[in-house]
Amino acid sequence: MNRPILSIIVIFYNMKREAPRTLYTLSTNYQQEVDCNQYEIIAIDNGSDEAMSEVMVRSFGPNFHLFSREGSPSPNSAINAGVEMARGSLIMICIDGARMLTPKVVYYTLMAFKAFENPIVATIAYHLGPKLQNISMTEGYNQDTEDKLLESIDWKANGYSLLNISSLAGSCISGWFLPLGESNCLTITKSQFINLGGFDEKFISPGGGMVNLDFYKRGCEANTPLVVLLGEGTFHQFHGGVATNIPLNQHPGPIFHEEYRQLRGQDFSFPSQEPILFGKLSKESMPFLNYSVEKLNARETN
To answer: Which pLDDT value is given to residue 246?
Structure first.
């Protein structure tokens, strides 16, 4: 196999149900207009109670590789280790292995690095289900509900149909045209990742706390173009996440923010950099396009 251009690092922890779906959406059976020589998948099992199967991971293609390691509450060191192993000059970071992707994330990411000099390429995030999962879980949403929801659409044949059963994540609540808080599928050159110092392993909260937001913010502030893939995204599966799948009145946000303040000496705020939009809209994207326009208009009139 030729040396890949893009190394995709995906972190898994106790995601036996979710991992096969995520991995399928990264395979060439699903990702469009790319082949397995252009990218590799570095799937890292970060200390799951039941270790992931190498046979299962490898079944998605010859460019899939499984690495198992002793886990820690934070995925930061696993990401940094994955970057050291990566053979590609571009690094895509998926900190949460429970997130499925749309079908042209890889294609448009590679195209963006041809169109812009040293960009940071991001996607917006969705939650599967009718509302933010922190809310929908208090109204009966669970893994069984989600399984039936996914069975109701032919997402393997048309990944954009995932948009029909999803809602925007909190960090992307304003849609495409206003600044994002983070990206759960973020791509940067390997050299820029190293220059930024990688993921800060001083963030020790479960799930990494605000480490993904911190890295995204530092990347945005590094005087580099921010490119957001229009019409693409990731979709969070319900799996008991420490921040995504807990009621809002029990959310560990205050603990995460305090850790951020201690490490950075200031409160967290969204990066002010507005995105360059790149890609193509599907018909399934139109409700989110209209919503994003409404959010932009509301800001302009205030």
So the answer is: 67
